[in-house]
Design brief:
The structure holds two protein chains of two kinds. Chain A is an alpha/beta fold. In chain A, 56% of the residues lie in helices and 9% in strands. In chain A, strand 3 and strand 4 form a beta hairpin. The N terminus of chain A is likely disordered. Chain B has a six-stranded mixed beta barrel. Chain B has a five-stranded parallel β-sheet with strand order 15-16-17-14-18, with helices on both faces. Chain B is elongated. The longest helix of chain B is centred in the middle third of the chain and has 27 residues. Chain B contains 33 helices and 21 strands. Classes of the chains: A alpha/beta, B alpha/beta. At the A-B interface, helix 3, helix 6, helix 7, helix 9 and helix 11 of A face helix 17, helix 20, helix 27, helix 29 and helix 30 of B.
């Protein structure tokens, strides 16, 4: 034990990092879902009744992405399985609308996960129709008191609604509304209008229970959550290190600049997934020589996250390409967003070379064309409609996929940008 | 067993072996001892002789029908070979829903002695495939191991209702194969000894007549009367003999056959012969029209009250324990005559006869039957022999005398209108019949020789009639339905006797499928917990799945569907019905309820048995799977859709003696739509077939489905029997909840009313209503722990539940959105206002968004962040986004009304 207590600092750092990464990458469920107590109770109670009383239910868990639907369900199922009564009885079937893209695949998956008798090894035999008939027969044979209840988890529930005739949903919900094997159908979705996707018969069979996960966090709670997320648990092997770490985290959260960063994040999105990615980036910067989290880490992480992807691409362009972008921007300003073609851009560029440029050489047209095509490849420029190929390349209509502001910002930051180019960009008239 | 070669592959020739062993001159039949069957390409011939067990060509090439050969004969032309057999059934021929009655797994080689008088037992001799070996296994023994695959075992008896132990004696051929057929008037018949009583008794019980026959009481009474016959007065003896003969009476039955119109040319001669032989006062006096004028004009409607009328008559009669069915057979000949001449007069009895006539006509030779055959014991032969003796004229007379009584035995009109009444009457009959039975017992012998007692009827007949009533009707229906005019295609029909469809087991689509996989969910370790408190109890009762004791508020619909199906089942006809209504109005539940109660009455023998199958358009992957599912539920075989369609087509168009009515429920009909609509077409066309006996109930949501999606020929076949389930009104919903709760006091009155009014206003969907109530009990349970409460679900709980289920979540979602998301929504609205359109590109909105950010004093977001915000709103469907690959030119629309957005943002 004494050995463990005197862990080297390096070990402590790596251990802390491992712990935090696990937490931030969703590998570990939190002990208790944050700020979702009522939903947690509701869902747990519902599933408990299915497991214990054999009551069939159907419920939708609706919430925006990253609001903790899967986490909530995971916590509930964990608690449910810790009940002795449920543990031995409940069968769990997990489906995902992105994986089971049609009913045929979904049925095979259900059959496989239920280990029905037409499963050999890991393979399900039989045609689609046979599988459906088999599954329905199996479910029909059960009854409320003697069969093991089945919990169906349908992730991305809305995608199941796009299956042909909604056969799977109809049948699952029909089972949940009739005296057959007890089932609980849990749908997870981020679409608020998911019920409108259901066909009227399917809809009628759905119990219309919805659990909404809307985070109503205030900023103070948000900061608290950040602190909790970054703190090391009390059972950390090296209490000295963890105390120091936790202290630094508390202090960090009180700092003005950090609060500003967090506020900005909070304003942008309240969900924890984006917060986690911010924290993850900052935690990754911790090293032995840099054993506590600093303000700078968060700042850097925030900068990385909120950086504009296109502005970054613009930094990598050549001067010629940048000039073409500026020419296009001027064309956009002149013609109020109407599409342009290469010839127009070239003309604009030529005008600039002739009149204002001092530092830039005159380029041959093919060279300019090559630069233009590079922009096309980067998708900074896009053809208006790709379908028309008959037009010569020079005259194909294009659009600039950049905002005015993005161009200006890129120019500001562009390393060693010629002054005349900058001025040209800033001038109202070409 | 596939080695039994069928007609498809092999041609067989049939030859009589030796000389005829006997001849029936009246019937112009020659009886043979055995027949040899030679198969093309095989050297040795197979020989089958009376008493042997044979295989008869059937539906299924792998499983031919099994029977015991009783007699072989040919008609005078010598062309048609007919065999009289006792059927055995395989497990696969037993209706699926009855198989569980066996209570164990059937042995693969097990067969059952088939006891059903409704089944035709004459088959075309040329359908015989060959001999087979059958062993009787006593009921308590297990099946012998290690025997050849070709030996079949018989252990039990199947009387279409239940499995019973089989008396090994039944397995004995009715007479020694060497002895001549009963109707031949050889001198040796007279020399036969007096019937042994036990044999007699066995013969009686084996007549396979009615359900009542199988009861021990009846048997013993019969035996008793027989016994007494031996020592009591001559009259009694005669009547006893007659009775025993009646229970077997092939002779008279054959006469009946002759009378039927489809019988061969010699009919008239035979009639004359019968008349000559049995000249009898009553008969001749009534026979004022020519005997040949009969059947075609003899069909008449029988008044409904006939039964009652008859009951009112003094029910003095003989032989209370007369075996019914044979009685019919016996007097058939007479009844035909009576029926003919009595048209126009009001003699109730003749009415009965006439009403019976069509049935008889259809019954024709093959009807002959299981009945009687078994009873072909020496005693009977003696009887018939005695009958021929001129000295026993009285006997002949008596035979006619007692016929009217027997005629009255089936005094039931088969028309459906009569059925409703008669079913009600039946109960009274049971009571009354009992009384009269005792009465008539006494004056058994007194009345014996009153010749003109045509208007009387045997009270016991009446009583038994009441019992077997429905069963009898079933048979009648079967006859009626399953015969095609015989005169035209006699041979062909006989050739296929119990024709269904030639069934070839097709291999399942993927042969690797584990074949014996049983679909089941493993059972749980401990049984589910029962509801503990009032609220839990209420919740269990309110669950949609709990089957209510009754279906309130659908009485009218229930009655209509009930009447429809019942009349079709009783008539043995077919028909379609279309039921429409929005989801959750109890369509399927009502139909199930109807079927449940019909099945109950079928159990009690009030109506004929029927087969109920259900398919659901939603529960199949493709409309054509409907065929597969129907076939599987009907016959438990798998087939491809095309093959299944062909098999069903054959099944529903071919006549078959053993067929029961099929009630088919097609739920979610609209999903069976195909471009050519052939599935729908077939479903509606089959019931119109003569022999189909198919009742199709279809359910869909829209009232005008037939007009909207069906082409004319389909809609026309669906017919106009339609029913529409209206959405429930709030009163009905309230009643439904109240009846479900059934005195479990869990809800406040007002709360119930609120729920039902709210649901009725929105959809009238009972499921919704129940779900809300269920949710309300949950809310009550949670809040109840905190505060007082009466423990009842009150207004506040219901309100909360309603809110949860009906309120739109958009506003809550907007309120909980992040600042940037809210800003973006505002930017969208601002841009819409600027453009005057309901659509904008992301670029346009983003400009607005940045402006708003500045106004709000927030740091403007980058394009990437803005796009992320936009996508988040899009994934919640607050915004509708189009063409995400268009990047800046992504088109944005609102999925919520602008007012809602503004409302949600303002209240913030």
């Amino acid at each position: 034990m004494s050995k463990r207590r005197s862990l080297t600092e390096a070990q402590c750092v790596s251990l802390a990092q491992k712990l935090l990464r696990e937490r931030l990458c969703h590998q570990k469920l939190p002990d208790r879902p944050l700020a979702l107590d009522s939903q947690y109770k509701h869902l747990l109670e519902l599933l408990r009744r299915t497991a214990v009383h054999g009551e069939s239910n159907s419920v939708l868990i609706v919430g925006p992405r990253g609001s903790g639907k899967t986490m909530l369900l995971g916590c509930v199922l964990r608690e449910l399985m810790s009940l002795k009564e449920a543990q031995k009885n409940v069968l769990l079937v997990e489906l995902n609308g992105l994986l089971q893209t049609d009913d045929k695949i979904a049925l095979k998956e259900i059959t496989r996960q239920l280990h029905l008798e037409n499963v050999v090894g890991d393979k399900v035999f039989g045609s689609f129709a046979e599988n459906l008939a088999f599954l329905l027969e199996a479910l029909k044979k059960g009854d409320k008191s003697s069969s093991r209840p089945v919990v169906f988890v349908l992730d991305e529930f809305d995608l199941f609604a796009h299956h042909k005739n909604q056969t799977l949903l109809y049948n699952l919900l029909d089972v949940s509304q009739s005296a057959q094997t007890p089932v609980a159908v849990l749908g997870l979705t981020c679409r608020l209008d998911v019920l409108e996707l259901l066909e009227k018969r399917v809809k009628s069979r759905f119990s219309h229970r919805q659990i909404h996960l809307f985070s109503s966090l205030s900023f103070a709670q948000y900061v608290d959550a950040v602190r909790a997320q970054l703190s090391l648990p009390p059972d950390f092997p090296d209490p000295k290190f963890s105390d120091a770490w936790n202290h630094s985290v508390t202090k960090l959260c009180e700092e003005k600049s950090v609060e500003e960063i967090l506020r900005r994040h909070f304003n942008s999105s309240k969900d924890f997934r984006s917060l986690h990615s911010l924290l993850f980036l900052s935690v990754s910067r911790v090293s032995v020589s840099h054993s506590t989290l600093h303000e700078a880490d968060l700042l850097e992480a925030s900068r990385l996250i909120s950086a504009d992807s296109k502005a970054i691409i613009l930094h990598g362009l050549s001067i010629l390409e940048l000039c073409l972008i500026i020419a296009m921007k001027h064309l956009n300003d002149t013609y109020d967003g109407e599409p342009f073609n290469f010839q127009m851009v070239h003309n604009e560029f030529k005008k600039f070379i002739q009149r204002k440029s001092h530092s830039i050489h005159k380029f041959e047209k093919p060279v300019v064309m090559k630069a233009f095509e590079h922009l096309l490849q980067l998708e900074l420029v896009r053809p208006v409609d790709s379908g028309v190929c008959k037009v010569q390349r020079e005259y194909q209509l294009m659009r600039l996929m950049l905002e005015h502001g993005q161009v200006m910002e890129a120019l500001q930051r562009y390393p060693q940008c010629p002054t005349d180019v900058k001025q040209w960009a800033l001038s109202a008239f070409a | 067993m596939s080695r039994y070669i069928t007609r498809l592959r092999m041609r067989r020739t049939y030859k009589w072996n030796g000389r005829p062993v006997g001849e029936d001159r009246k019937l112009k039949r020659k009886y043979y001892e055995s027949m040899s069957i030679s198969v093309e390409g095989k050297t040795e011939d197979a020989t089958v002789s009376s008493g042997q067990y044979i295989l008869i060509e059937g539906d299924d090439d792998d499983n031919p029908f099994v029977a015991q050969l009783h007699k072989l004969y040919t008609d005078d032309s010598g062309k048609k070979k007919t065999a009289v057999v006792q059927w055995f059934v395989r497990m696969c021929e037993v209706p699926q829903n009855k198989r569980k009655l066996l209570g164990r797994d059937p042995h693969p080689q097990e067969i059952f002695f088939y006891q059903d008088r409704s089944c035709d037992n004459e088959v075309d001799g040329e359908t015989i495939l060959g001999a087979v070996q059958i062993e009787y296994v006593p009921a308590e023994n297990s099946f012998p191991e290690g025997k050849s695959k070709d030996i079949l075992f018989v252990k039990l008896l199947w009387d279409t209702k239940s499995f019973k132990a089989l008396d090994p004696e039944l397995m004995q051929p009715p007479q020694s194969p060497k002895s001549p057929p009963p109707s031949s008037r050889g001198p040796q018949t007279r020399a036969l000894p007096t019937p042994d009583l036990s044999v007699m008794k066995r013969a009686m019980s084996g007549t396979l007549t009615r359900g009542s026959m199988s009861t021990g009481k009846m048997n013993s009474s019969e035996a008793e009367s027989l016994h007494s016959a031996s020592k009591l007065s001559a009259a009694k003896a005669l009547s006893a003999k007659r009775r025993s003969r009646a229970s077997s009476g092939p002779h008279v039955r054959k006469k009946l056959d002759l009378c039927s119109p489809t019988k061969n040319v010699s009919r008239d001669d035979v009639l004359g012969e019968i008349l000559d032989e049995h000249t009898e006062k009553t008969l001749t006096s009534k026979l004022n029209t020519s005997p040949t004028g009969r059947i075609s004009i003899s069909i008449r409607l029988t008044p409904l009250n006939l039964n009652e009328e008859e009951r009112v008559f003094p029910l003095s009669s003989h032989s209370p324990d007369k075996p019914k069915l044979t009685a019919h057979d016996k007097d058939d000949a007479t009844s035909v005559f009576l029926g003919v001449q009595s048209i126009g007069d009001d003699d109730p009895d003749s009415l009965i006869n006439t009403s019976r006539t069509p049935r008889k006509r259809e019954a024709t030779p093959r009807r002959a039957g299981l009945r009687g055959l078994k009873a072909r014991t020496p005693s009977r032969r003696k009887d018939s022999a005695a009958l021929r003796e001129p000295a026993l004229a009285a006997l002949a007379e008596e035979e006619h005398e007692d016929s009217p009584i027997q005629t009255a035995a089936t005094p039931r009109s088969k028309r459906k209108s009569a059925q409703l009444v008669s079913s009600r009457i039946r109960k009274q009959l049971n009571v009354l019949g009992n009384k009269v039975d005792r009465l008539s017992d006494g004056d058994d012998d007194d009345d014996c020789f009153i010749p003109t007692k045509t208007d009387l009827q045997s009270s016991s007949d009446e009583e038994e009639e009441a019992k077997i009533d429905s069963e009898d009707e079933l048979i009648v229906k079967k006859r009626r339905g399953s015969r095609t005019p015989r005169s035209t295609e006699k041979t062909r029909v006989t050739a296929r006797t119990p024709r269904k469809t030639p069934i070839k087991k097709t291999a399942p689509a993927t042969p690797r499928t584990p074949r014996h996989a049983t679909p089941s969910i493993p059972s749980r370790s401990a049984p589910a917990r029962k509801p503990g408190n009032v609220l839990e109890e209420a919740r269990a009762r309110l669950h949609v799945s709990s089957v209510p004791e009754s279906l309130p508020c659908r009485e009218q619909e229930f009655q209509d569907i009930y009447n429809f199906v019942e009349s079709k089942v009783i008539d043995g006809t077919g028909g379609c019905m279309y039921i429409s209504g929005v989801p959750g109005t109890g369509k399927t539940a009502t139909v199930h309820e109807v079927v449940r109660s019909l099945q109950q009455s079928a159990e009690q023998d009030e109506i004929p048995h029927f087969h109920f199958i259900e398919i659901n358009g939603m529960k199949m992957t493709d409309p054509h799977q409907a065929y597969v599912q129907i076939l599987q539920k009907l016959t438990d075989q798998k087939a491809t859709p095309d093959h299944a369609a062909a098999l069903l087509e054959k099944r529903f168009s071919a006549p078959a003696p053993k067929k029961e009515t099929t009630v088919l429920l097609v739920d979610e009909l609209d999903l069976l739509w195909t471009r050519k609509q052939n599935v729908m077409y077939n479903l509606f066309d089959w019931p119109t077939r003569r022999n189909a006996r198919l009742v199709v109930l279809t359910i869909a949501n829209t009232m005008d489905l037939p007009e909207r999606i069906m082409i004319n020929r389909v809609a026309s076949r669906l017919g106009l029997t339609r029913m529409s389930f209206q959405p429930y009104t709030f009163k009905q919903l309230q009643q439904i909840i109240t009846s479900r709760l059934n005195r479990v006091k869990a809800f406040e009155e007002d709360a119930l009313q609120l729920v039902s009014r709210k649901v009725a206003a929105l959809s009238g969907d009972a499921r919704r209503c129940l779900d809300i109530c269920r949710r309300a009990t949950e809310i009550c349970e949670h809040s109840g722990s905190q505060k007082n409460g009466s423990g009842l679900v009150g207004m506040s709980h219901v309100m909360e539940a309603l809110d949860e289920m009906f309120s739109s979540s958009y506003i809550a979602a907007i309120r909980c959105a992040s600042v940037q998301e809210q800003l973006f929504l505002r930017a969208v609205i601002a841009e819409f206002r600027r453009l005057g359109l309901e659509e904008a590109t992301f670029q346009q909105v983003f400009v607005q968004h940045q402006a708003l950010c500045r106004v709000e004093g927030l740091q403007p977001v980058s394009v990437s962040e803005g796009l992320a915000v936009c996508q988040r709103l899009g994934s919640c469907r607050l915004l509708l986004l189009e063409g995400s690959r268009l990047d800046l030119f992504l088109r944005i629309r609102l999925n919520v009304s602008q007012d809602d957005v503004l409302y949600a943002l303002k209240a913030d």
